[in-house]
Amino acid sequence: TTQGSCYHWELLAQALMSMAHEGLVKEEKIDSFNAPYYAPCEEEIKQEIEKEGSFMIDRLEGFEVDWDGGLFDKSTKIGSISAGKQVAKTIRAVVESMLQSYFGEDMDMDGLFRRYAEVVGDHLSTNRTRYFNVVVSMIRKA
Q: Which residues form a coiled coil (predicted)?
Protein backbone atom coordinates (compact mmCIF):
# COMPACT_ATOMS: atom_id res chain seq x y z
CA THR A 1 0.00 0.00 0.00
CA THR A 2 0.97 3.62 -0.28
CA GLN A 3 1.09 6.00 2.65
CA GLY A 4 -1.82 7.90 1.13
CA SER A 5 -4.02 4.81 1.02
CA CYS A 6 -5.12 5.24 4.62
CA TYR A 7 -4.44 8.96 5.14
CA HIS A 8 -8.13 9.68 4.55
CA TRP A 9 -8.70 8.43 8.13
CA GLU A 10 -6.38 11.15 9.46
CA LEU A 11 -8.24 13.80 7.48
CA LEU A 12 -11.58 12.47 8.70
CA ALA A 13 -10.26 12.72 12.27
CA GLN A 14 -9.36 16.37 11.61
CA ALA A 15 -12.91 17.06 10.45
CA LEU A 16 -14.32 15.31 13.53
CA MET A 17 -11.98 17.24 15.85
CA SER A 18 -13.08 20.55 14.32
CA MET A 19 -16.62 19.58 15.32
CA ALA A 20 -15.42 18.72 18.83
CA HIS A 21 -13.75 22.13 19.17
CA GLU A 22 -17.11 23.72 18.39
CA GLY A 23 -18.89 21.49 20.93
CA LEU A 24 -20.84 19.57 18.28
CA VAL A 25 -19.42 16.18 19.33
CA LYS A 26 -17.58 15.06 22.45
CA GLU A 27 -13.82 14.67 22.03
CA GLU A 28 -13.88 11.60 24.31
CA LYS A 29 -16.28 9.94 21.89
CA ILE A 30 -13.88 10.61 19.01
CA ASP A 31 -10.93 9.33 21.05
CA SER A 32 -12.69 6.03 21.75
CA PHE A 33 -13.76 5.47 18.14
CA ASN A 34 -11.84 2.64 16.49
CA ALA A 35 -12.01 1.88 12.80
CA PRO A 36 -9.67 -1.03 12.16
CA TYR A 37 -8.15 -0.77 8.73
CA TYR A 38 -5.92 -3.33 7.12
CA ALA A 39 -4.68 -3.24 3.56
CA PRO A 40 -3.02 -6.50 2.51
CA CYS A 41 -0.15 -6.59 0.07
CA GLU A 42 -0.36 -8.56 -3.18
CA GLU A 43 1.53 -11.52 -1.70
CA GLU A 44 -0.93 -11.83 1.21
CA ILE A 45 -3.87 -11.83 -1.18
CA LYS A 46 -2.21 -14.51 -3.28
CA GLN A 47 -1.51 -16.67 -0.21
CA GLU A 48 -5.13 -16.44 1.00
CA ILE A 49 -6.51 -17.43 -2.39
CA GLU A 50 -4.12 -20.36 -2.63
CA LYS A 51 -4.86 -21.42 0.96
CA GLU A 52 -8.61 -21.42 0.35
CA GLY A 53 -8.01 -23.70 -2.64
CA SER A 54 -11.12 -23.20 -4.79
CA PHE A 55 -9.54 -20.85 -7.34
CA MET A 56 -6.46 -20.45 -9.50
CA ILE A 57 -5.13 -16.95 -9.97
CA ASP A 58 -5.36 -16.00 -13.61
CA ARG A 59 -3.97 -12.51 -13.11
CA LEU A 60 -3.09 -10.34 -10.12
CA GLU A 61 -2.07 -6.72 -10.62
CA GLY A 62 -1.61 -3.68 -8.47
CA PHE A 63 -2.01 -0.09 -9.61
CA GLU A 64 -2.30 3.37 -8.14
CA VAL A 65 -5.07 5.86 -8.72
CA ASP A 66 -5.36 9.48 -7.58
CA TRP A 67 -7.81 10.00 -4.73
CA ASP A 68 -9.83 12.36 -6.88
CA GLY A 69 -9.74 10.15 -9.97
CA GLY A 70 -7.69 12.76 -11.82
CA LEU A 71 -10.32 15.53 -11.57
CA PHE A 72 -8.06 18.10 -9.92
CA ASP A 73 -5.60 20.02 -12.11
CA LYS A 74 -2.54 20.05 -9.87
CA SER A 75 -0.63 22.41 -12.17
CA THR A 76 -3.15 25.25 -11.73
CA LYS A 77 -4.48 24.25 -8.29
CA ILE A 78 -7.99 24.78 -9.68
CA GLY A 79 -10.68 22.42 -8.53
CA SER A 80 -9.48 21.48 -5.04
CA ILE A 81 -12.97 22.11 -3.65
CA SER A 82 -14.59 19.89 -6.29
CA ALA A 83 -11.93 17.22 -5.77
CA GLY A 84 -12.46 17.38 -2.00
CA LYS A 85 -16.21 16.94 -2.46
CA GLN A 86 -15.69 13.96 -4.79
CA VAL A 87 -13.38 12.22 -2.33
CA ALA A 88 -15.74 13.00 0.56
CA LYS A 89 -18.66 11.41 -1.31
CA THR A 90 -16.62 8.27 -1.93
CA ILE A 91 -15.49 7.93 1.69
CA ARG A 92 -18.97 8.80 2.96
CA ALA A 93 -20.42 5.87 1.00
CA VAL A 94 -18.03 3.56 2.85
CA VAL A 95 -18.04 4.88 6.42
CA GLU A 96 -21.27 6.80 7.04
CA SER A 97 -23.23 3.85 8.43
CA MET A 98 -20.35 2.95 10.77
CA LEU A 99 -20.06 6.54 12.00
CA GLN A 100 -23.83 6.91 12.39
CA SER A 101 -23.99 3.69 14.38
CA TYR A 102 -21.21 4.79 16.71
CA PHE A 103 -21.94 8.50 17.13
CA GLY A 104 -25.73 8.20 17.03
CA GLU A 105 -28.57 9.87 15.21
CA ASP A 106 -27.63 13.31 16.56
CA MET A 107 -24.41 13.36 14.53
CA ASP A 108 -24.68 15.87 11.67
CA MET A 109 -23.33 13.73 8.83
CA ASP A 110 -23.89 16.43 6.22
CA GLY A 111 -21.89 18.87 8.34
CA LEU A 112 -19.14 16.33 8.99
CA PHE A 113 -18.66 15.46 5.34
CA ARG A 114 -18.86 19.12 4.29
CA ARG A 115 -15.93 19.78 6.67
CA TYR A 116 -14.19 16.65 5.46
CA ALA A 117 -14.50 17.82 1.83
CA GLU A 118 -12.80 21.10 2.80
CA VAL A 119 -9.98 19.32 4.66
CA VAL A 120 -9.44 16.94 1.73
CA GLY A 121 -9.53 19.82 -0.77
CA ASP A 122 -6.86 21.65 1.22
CA HIS A 123 -4.77 18.49 1.37
CA LEU A 124 -5.10 17.82 -2.36
CA SER A 125 -4.13 21.39 -3.23
CA THR A 126 -0.60 20.69 -1.96
CA ASN A 127 -0.28 16.88 -2.12
CA ARG A 128 -0.68 14.17 -4.71
CA THR A 129 -2.34 11.38 -2.81
CA ARG A 130 -3.07 7.98 -4.33
CA TYR A 131 -4.79 4.73 -3.46
CA PHE A 132 -3.14 1.44 -4.26
CA ASN A 133 -5.62 -1.05 -5.73
CA VAL A 134 -5.23 -4.75 -6.39
CA VAL A 135 -7.26 -6.45 -9.11
CA VAL A 136 -7.48 -10.23 -9.15
CA SER A 137 -8.85 -12.41 -11.92
CA MET A 138 -9.50 -15.98 -10.74
CA ILE A 139 -10.65 -19.23 -12.32
CA ARG A 140 -12.70 -21.66 -10.29
CA LYS A 141 -10.99 -25.04 -10.03
CA ALA A 142 -12.96 -28.03 -11.30
A: none
